[in-house]
Write a structure and sequence with these properties.
2 domains, alpha/beta, 2-enoyl-CoA Hydratase, Chain A, domain 1, 47% helix
């Protein structure tokens, strides 16, 4: 995967260590601002993920996780070019961009964003795409799309509402204000905040804890929790029974 031209073009690096894959945004000179090439690279990582990978860590090189969209994408001529597309072509194009963000929620892996510095707009949405977020004490989340007359369209609205609730999500999106580390943990945007110099160590500790349980039990539990919001209580209990039945049969047969 490392020599995939899409990764090279998108300035995305991938490293594997056993069952853990680390994906790094590698445009530190631009605070990891995202381009279409970034999104193609991230989508390629999801497409090429080996089935024996259990945890994927997402991080950004340099001082910021990702400061959002590259300036070229925010230029008026870029807006005009997109607006001129037929509606079905525009819809398909945005769906293609979204594919870089959606695979992080797949139930067969646990995804962890290690977030430092700025995570703005598309950067915020990329962090939200992951299951868990560990942040440094200098983190600054913000959703700035409405200040440009736009909406968040890279898959970030649903996980934001799930994390903080509708009212807080609405306030964050419409004001575009920054959310710091302490508030992020308090409102559910992040699971842990640590000093900047301890971020890598904290993520490594979390990854070790995530790898400790048996892999299929983790996948079954992840799928149960991910689907809980869309099920009735009775449907969720039925899903639990089915999952437990599969686990009991696997254990009885001697497999993990």
């Amino acid at each position: 995967m490392d020599d995939d031209p899409r990764l090279l073009a998108g300035r995305v690096r991938v490293r594997r260590d056993g069952a853990v894959v680390t994906v790094s945004l590698d445009r530190p000179e631009a605070r990891n601002a995202q381009t279409q090439a970034t999104w193609r690279a991230l989508a390629a990582v999801g497409e090429g993920l080996s089935p024996d990978v259990r945890v994927v860590v997402l991080r950004g090189e340099g001082t910021s996780f990702s400061a959002g969209l590259d300036r070229a994408l925010l230029a008026p001529e870029s807006f005009r070019r997109l607006a001129a597309l037929p509606p079905d072509e525009l819809d398909a194009l945005i769906a293609e961009y979204q594919s870089a963000f959606t695979w992080w929620a797949r139930p067969d892996v646990v995804t962890v964003a290690a977030v430092q510095g700025h995570a703005l707009g598309a950067g915020f949405q990329l962090a939200l795409a992951c299951d868990l977020r560990v942040v440094s004490d200098d983190v600054r989340f913000a959703m700035r799309e409405t200040s440009l007359g736009l909406v968040p369209d890279l898959g970030g609205t649903a996980p934001l509402v799930r994390a903080v609730g509708y009212a807080r999500a609405l306030e964050i999106c419409l004001t575009g204000r920054e959310v710091g580390a302490a508030e992020a943990v308090a409102c559910g945007l992040a699971q842990l905040a640590v000093p900047r110099e301890q971020l890598d160590e904290a993520v490594a500790d979390l990854v070790c804890a995530l790898l400790a349980p048996e892999a299929d039990a983790v996948r079954e539990t992840t799928a149960l929790l991910a689907g809980a919001v869309g099920r009735s209580d009775a449907e969720q209990r039925a899903a639990e029974r089915a999952a437990q039945g599969r686990r009991l049969r696997a254990l009885a047969e001697g497999s993990p």
